[in-house]
Amino acid sequence: MAEFSMDLNEDQITVRDWVHEFAVNQIRPVAHEWDEREETPWPVIEEAARAGLYSLDFMADASTDPQGLKLVLALEELAWGDAGIGLSIVGTMLGVAGIMANGTPEQQMEWIPQCFGTADDVKIAAFCVSEPDAGSDVSSLKTRAVYDEATDEWVLNGTKTWITNGGIANVHVVVASVDPELRGRGQASFVIPEGTKGISQGQKFKKMGIRASHTAEVVLDDCRIPGRFLLGGKARLDERLARAREGARSGEQVAMKTFESTRPSVGAQALGIARAAYEFSLDYAKERKQFGRAIIENQAIAFKLADMKMAIDASRLLVWRAAWMAATGKPFEHGEGSMSKLMAGETAVRVTEEAIQIMGGYGYVRENPVERWHRDSKIYTIFEGTSEIQRLIIARSISGMRIQ
Length: 404
Description:
globular; 14% strand; Butyryl-CoA Dehydrogenase, subunit A, domain 3; Butyryl-CoA Dehydrogenase, subunit A, domain 2; Butyryl-Coa Dehydrogenase, subunit A, domain 1; 3 domains; alpha+beta; 4-stranded antiparallel sheet; 3-stranded mixed sheet
């Protein structure tokens, strides 16, 4: 097992600096433009693919770092550049995580490369869980998948909502109910490739923040897919359902397995936003003069910045610890993954708000990036498990009780 260390090795530093340079040169100069346009920044994604940043090779290398830090380092730098563009670049990883968590080795080899495409033909993926009536409570999904034994096909019907890359993805990974009576234990994941009849984009959402990231509904209307597109295979599903019907433990919910593995990564993105706002407001406080001196010389401002720095570093420690635990197979016994996402998300909101306060009216206008960073930060207390859900997970973990 790789030891946990705050001292980055040469390979980790190289990755961090490389992604930071990409963020400086390719993301920050166009961040305001794509936020205003509220469109997927295809030119930036394509540039990332040409550079090797958006690729299966890089994501595989970063995800298999023995210490688990390469990926969170890269994600922090991308979000430091811009969270919306950064999420457009890494949103595919949600679909990939769904395939990794639930697919067979053969399915992983078949489908994961198709989630990225090539530098000359870029593809993207989406992970579809949330529904209009099932957000935090993923056990109540209404999207149904029914097996047609005569044709060896699955037929999916339902509507997914708040889906990153939803409707425009080349590969959709959809979580659906196969046995509603079993609730969360009766769900399965399916791969739906582009060109499949019966899957379409519904409403595209106009959001408060991360506006360069495409978010939309995905509508499934008698969507037929071959039986082999069930992740994990039917034999394994039937075995799991049989155990659940007998009252035995049947393993983690398929959606929860994916979210658990991605929480440190989400925390790393929030961390990048917070760091961007802190650095920007620190420079401003050193340069801005009132009453004959820099405003940072006033305790009211200096103490804000001290608290911001402390919260960011504390969040990074939690994110790195959770990433290391995930990479080394150490179980999250006390909700460590949830802690990392919760602390970093709420830190991003507080830090960006304080950055606006330090800058006053200048921080409130759309041309100033701290305004955008504050809008971007809020979603990190909502998606992939709200702050309330993270607290519930932590509370259950430390108490061993079924807290409602």
